[in-house]
C-alpha cells in the first residue's frame, strides 16, 4: 500500500506550528502575550484539528494494512490486530498520564492537571473509541461525527455552570472539559472519526490499478473535498459569528475542518498530479511527522529557556534560531537512530511484541 506523502506533510506542518505557538506562549512577556493569543485564535484550532484529522486517516490506513496482512499470513488474525491496536492505545494513554503528572507537579503545581486533555491523551482515547467503528460504513461515521460536534456544544453549555463544583455535573465537566481550552475529547474525537473516513477513501483509491481511472477518481475526490471544505468554512464563519474563533466550539471545529479539507486537497493535488516537480525528495515536514510524539514531549524543555523574558521585538530571532537547531537535530537523529528515537514506533513495536509473545506462550501452554 502506498504511503501518502500528503499525510506526513500535513501532520508535520501541524507539529511544526505547535512548537512555534508554544514558544510564543512560554517566552513572551505578559504585556506582549497578545501576540500569542492572536496566533492561538487563528491557527491553534486548525493545527490541533489537522493533527487529529490526519491521525484518524492514518489509523484507518494502518488498520487496512493489517487486514491485508491477515489474508497473507496464517499467524496474523483479527484478534491479534485488535489486541495490538488496543495495547498501543493503552501504552499511549500511560505516557499521556505520566506527562500530565509531571506537568501537574513541576509546572502548574495543581493536581487537577493530572487529568488534562493533551494531544496524547486525546489520541489514546480516540483509538480506544474508534476500534468498534472501523468496520462500520463511512456514512455512519460521518453522521456520528456531526452528532458529536453538535452534542459537545450543548453538553458544554449545560455543564459550564457546574465547573469547579464537587457534584456529579461538576465531576462530569472535569472529565470531559478539563481544561476547556485544550484538546477535549468530544469535538476532537469527532474530527478523528471524520479523518478515518478520509482514510477509507484513500485506501479505496489506492486499490485502483488502472492509472487513468485512478487519476479520474482522485480528481473527483479532490474536487468534492474542496467544495465541501469551502462550504464548511463559510458556514463555520457565519454561524453565530464570531464563535468560529473560539477554541473547540462547534463553529470553530466546522471552520477548521473545512480549511483542513482545502489544504489537504491542494497538497494531494500536488502529490498525485506532480503539479510542482521537485528533483530532490525533500522530507522536511516528514521528519516532524515521523517524530511527532517525541517532539511533543521533548520540546517542553523549551518552556524554561526564556520564560516570560522576550518582547514582541526580541522574540523572533530566538524562535527562528530554535526552529533551525531543532530541525537540524531531528534530521541528525533520523540519520543516526532512525525509528529508534520515535516514541510512536517504539509503542507499535512493544505492542506487537507483547501480544505476539503472549499468543505464543498460550500456544505452548495448550500444547503441554
Structural class: mainly alpha
Mean pLDDT: 87
Beta-strand residue percentage: under 5%
Question: Counting H and I runs of at least 4 residues, what is the number of helices?
Answer: 13
Main sheet summary? none
Spatial extent as radius of gyration:
21 Å
Q: Write down the domain tally.
A: 1
- The run of helices and strands is HHHHHHHHHHHHH
Shape: globular
How much helical structure, as a percent, in the residues? over 70%
- Our measurement of the CA-to-CA distance between the termini, rounded to an integer number of angstroms, reads 40 Å
Low-confidence stretches: 364-368
- Secondary structure tally: strands: 0
Structure described in brief:
The chain has helices at about 5-25, 35-70, 80-105, 120-130, 140-160, 170-175, 185-205, 210-240, 250-275, 285-290, 290-300, 315-335, 345-365. It is built from 13 helices and no strands. The protein starts with a helix and ends with a helix.
Can you characterise this structure?
- The protein has 368 residues and is mostly helical.
- The protein has one domain.
- The protein contains 13 helices and no strands.
- The two termini are 40 Å apart.
Amino acid at each position: 500500500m502506498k504511503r501518502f506523502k500528503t499525510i506526513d506533510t500535513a501532520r508535520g506542518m501541524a507539529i511544526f506550528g505547535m512548537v512555534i505557538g508554544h514558544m510564543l506562549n512560554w517566552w513572551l512577556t505578559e504585556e506582549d502575550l497578545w501576540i500569542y493569543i492572536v496566533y492561538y485564535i487563528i491557527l491553534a484550532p486548525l493545527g490541533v484539528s489537522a493533527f487529529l484529522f490526519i491521525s484518524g486517516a492514518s489509523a484507518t490506513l494502518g488498520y487496512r494494512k493489517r487486514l491485508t496482512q491477515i489474508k497473507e499470513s496464517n499467524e496474523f488474525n483479527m484478534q491479534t490486530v485488535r489486541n495490538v491496536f488496543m495495547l498501543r492505545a493503552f501504552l499511549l494513554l500511560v505516557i499521556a498520564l505520566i506527562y500530565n503528572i509531571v506537568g501537574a507537579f513541576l509546572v502548574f503545581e495543581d493536581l487537577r492537571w493530572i487529568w488534562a486533555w493533551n494531544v496524547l491523551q486525546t489520541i489514546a482515547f480516540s483509538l480506544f473509541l474508534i476500534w468498534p467503528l472501523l468496520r462500520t460504513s463511512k456514512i455512519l461515521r460521518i453522521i456520528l461525527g456531526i452528532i458529536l460536534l453538535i452534542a459537545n456544544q450543548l453538553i458544554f453549555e449545560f455543564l459550564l455552570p457546574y465547573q469547579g463544583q464537587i457534584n456529579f455535573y461538576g465531576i462530569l465537566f472535569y472529565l470531559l472539559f478539563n481544561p476547556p481550552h485544550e484538546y477535549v475529547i468530544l469535538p476532537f474525537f469527532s474530527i478523528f472519526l471524520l479523518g478515518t473516513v478520509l482514510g477509507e477513501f484513500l485506501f479505496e483509491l489506492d486499490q485502483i490499478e488502472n492509472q487513468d481511472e485512478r487519476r479520474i477518481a482522485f480528481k473527483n475526490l479532490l474536487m468534492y473535498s474542496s467544495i465541501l471544505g469551502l462550504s464548511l468554512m463559510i458556514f463555520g464563519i457565519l454561524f453565530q459569528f464570531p464563535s468560529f474563533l473560539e477554541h473547540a466550539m462547534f463553529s470553530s471545529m466546522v471552520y477548521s475542518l473545512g480549511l483542513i479539507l482545502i489544504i489537504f486537497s491542494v497538497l494531494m493535488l500536488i502529490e498525485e498530479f506532480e503539479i510542482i516537480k521537485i528533483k530532490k525528495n525533500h522530507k522536511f515536514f516528514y521528519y516532524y511527522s515521523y517524530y511527532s510524539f517525541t517532539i511533543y514531549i521533548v520540546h517542553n524543555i523549551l518552556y524554561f529557556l526564556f520564560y516570560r523574558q522576550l518582547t514582541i521585538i526580541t522574540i523572533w530571532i530566538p524562535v527562528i534560531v530554535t526552529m533551525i537547531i531543532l530541525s537540524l537535530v531531528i534530521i541528525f537523529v533520523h540519520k543516526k537512530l532512525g525509528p529508534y528515537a520515535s516514541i510512536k514506533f517504539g509503542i507499535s513495536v512493544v505492542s506487537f511484541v507483547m501480544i505476539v509473545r503472549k499468543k505464543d506462550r498460550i500456544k505452548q501452554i495448550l500444547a503441554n
